[in-house]
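Help wanted!
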Amino acid sequence: MDTTLLFIQTLNGIQLGLLLFLVASGLTLVFGILDFVNLAHGSLYMIGAFVAASLTFVTGNFLIAMILALPVTAAVGYVIERTIIRSLYERDHLDQVLGTFGLILVIDTLAHLIWGPEGIAVPLPDWLNGQVELFTGVVVPTYRLLIIATGLAVAAGLFWLVNYTRLGMLIRAGASNRTMVSALGIDIQMLFALVFALGAVLAGLAGMLVAPITEAAIGMGGDIIITAFVVIIIGGIGSMKGAFIAALIVGLIDTLGRSFLDDLFKLVMSTEAAESSAPAVSAMLVYILMALVLAFKPSGLFPPKVR
Amino acid sequence: MGTLRKKGTLTIVVMAALAILPPILLWSGQAFYLDLATRLVILAIAAVSLNLILGYGGMASFGHAAFIGIGAYAVGIPVYHNTYGEFEIIASYSGLFQIALAVGISALFALITGMICLRTKGVYFIMITMAFAQMVFYLFVSLDIYGGDDGLVIDIRSELPLVNLDSPLQLYLLAYGSLVVAMLIVRTITRSQFGMVLQGAKGNNERVVTLGYNTYAYRLTAYVISGAMAGYAGALLGNFTTFISPEMMGWTRSGELMFMVILGGAATTIGPVLGSLVFIVIEEVFSSFTIYWHLPFGIMLIIIVLYVRGGLVGLITGGKKKRGK
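Answered by r_m:
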């Protein structure tokens, strides 16, 4: 195995893991506090990408576009929460899943109407478009390092927010005992809307970060949301720490599996058999991991203590 | 018990209409509507099977389309190998073999994933069934030999004794007959002692466990039966479309199946059929107006979830059902 390639793929895995964390953290936050399954979380990820793409063409600068797009996705999240989501809080999870499934169809079609059927490629500013030589012979795209840095910074910020601020205290309190929090005179409706908007911003940010690599496209949310579900199932639904660790594990396993599984298989089987079976197995790898985790710990690696 | 009698009448009216109307439409030269009816009836079989676990068993599977996909590929793959060689063991044009394969593999997949999924409850169950379905989806996407993303054309339809599936009418009648059998199976199951335990566990699992029943085993059995039935529907769907692709087991497909069951009326005999009927009509009518038909469909879905309790069967017969936490 080639160590340079291994290093680069590990970085790619961490990058995927951090993006997954951004999506999964919002999902787990909303579930932990609002007891709400938001299937449409992936649509917020897509909205982030499209809004950032449009703003990049308006402002001419991707970074400014991102900074402007964050409050826009927060506003979109807030409006969705006020109009539709809040009527679903008191329903069972099945109703929530179906309702937000309808919401996905609506949002995806609206995005189709506004931005057209084609994906939109997002140009990067020149200084981000280059490559950096980390060590001799190890060249990494600058932008990927920016994604990793942003992901780590947001993760740190989120841990600070949840553990050391008043809002975080309310979030944690709301997660363990909703009724008590509202009995103490906290405007729980407002707290819910804030948490939902925060989740929307996190998902939107992930979408924005990914847009220059893949382009903003309809249906991009559907692909990531299922993997984000796998992440929070492995991590324990409602646990921020679980989401972080599981996101990195899933990101690494998925990336490394896709690049090295055939080499591993070649150790135990013929080259031909390895090359035909490795893609199929690596496509299933994270789901197999999920199944294994659940077989031993049905509520994930870090189940929240109080529910 | 006026509601019960109304439900029975509704069932008979709908099923009689499905038996008579499509052949009449075919003879009057409207072959298109027979196609629509065939798709409807095949989807209805899958919806009926989902209703067994979702409606009666309270197991909200968001991955039911995976079984349909497995069933369809169980037709496509033997045909492919019989035409182009390799994997002689499964190469066959025989419909009985293909259907046995579809039902067997679906049941096996349901057994393995069900053992894991059913260890969890509620929202975990929804997400895990979804994830396993997506696993099968990505598996078939990665299998280049069967066309990967682009899908696989089924060159020759299943060869069955007595029935010629190349005849649209015979295919329809087979699908219709299968739907009736599927409904009878689910009806028999739900009225048996087995079904009572299943429905009891949906309402209050602890209570039924206290009575000495291993509800896990009951649920798993129901899950396997349901998966096998959906796999059978998939084999029919493969024969109907003669083109299969991973898209048919995507998670939006599973969502649509759930929609059919909930819209029609979960835990009712005719509900899933009505739901499939409405779904096909919505899809056909809206998509003829606009390529953006998902927009009105999505809005309808939200409105139905918010305001229509007990599904169409509840609306038509006036029977009230309360849903909520």
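OP: Thanks! One thing I noticed: The mean pLDDT of chain A is 88.
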